[in-house]
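[audit] Reproducing an earlier prediction to check determinism. Same input, same settings, fresh worker. If the tokens differ from the archived copy the diff job will pick it up downstream; this log only records the rerun itself.
[audit] input (322 residues):
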Amino acid sequence: MERLIDPAEVSNLYFFQGFKRLLPRSAFKKLLIRTSRQTPYMGFVIEPYSLFLFFKLKDIEKAKTFLPDRYELMESRVFVDEEPGLYLGMGVFNTRASTFWGSRLETYLIARDKETGHPSWIFIDILSNTIIAIPSRGVADRNCTNAMFTTNSKGNIFLDFVEDISGRQLSLTCNISNGKMRGVDPPLWVIGNSSIGHKKEFTDKKDVPFAVIFDPAEVEQALDIPLDSVKITRNTLFPDLADPQPCKVLCFPFAQHYIADSPGCHTHVADIDDMVNHYNRIADLKDIRTFSTKNIKRMLFLGMIIPILVSVMLFVLLMMNL
């Protein structure tokens, strides 16, 4: 999986992201999908100490309005030995991937895919200091200059994300020293990650979820963090949607390695055994290629050179008629 991550290609994508305005948004999206067909998988690593917070949903009807028609809210278990509930989830981590590198704060609703019956993680918000893939837009610019997620030698996690435009913020400190390893619920953490969707505003017309392929052992256990070890100093992300304080906090104190579908691609995973089969199949591929910006380079070059050529031709025609 590590061979799917090429820092040079990530740097190129950052560079060319600044020139995407030279192309219509629809053309840039088509370009990404064309590139995805050549490299249908993207590798990404979530660095150690990723943090997940779950809040009890308060406004159920409002939560439903985020979901495309394909999905419906569902109760889920975070850990294996507990009663299910309706949650707003937040995942915060540092990551490096085939197409981005930085810090992310993702907010999700847990829903059921009515076509497959699978539990699904539905993105309703993404805050990041790196580029963001959104089906309706292709690739979006970062939306947080301030996106801090780090640790120290005393077992503390420090987190502070502020959205540039709105000022929405999540800021907290968390000590994981008293956390206990505990089994997490496979339907949510394994099957749910094979069915990842987006809220209505983020979806394209096809509204097809994407899958993350991995060894289920990556999400077998996590640290269950005592709630009194978590101090939220500011949370203005979704103040009316869920309780202001989390009811469950967990941390994965190790790196997690994943293979994700590229934009426009979808791997169907029937069950946990099927997840393992897909993972082994991809891991055994000898000629799997990483994401490449070659097509983007060509299109952006054409986007820059064609207006220049047109201007030169018009100038020549004008001079000939003088």
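[audit] rerun output stored. Observation attached for the diff report: The chain is about 25% helix and 35% strand.
[audit] end
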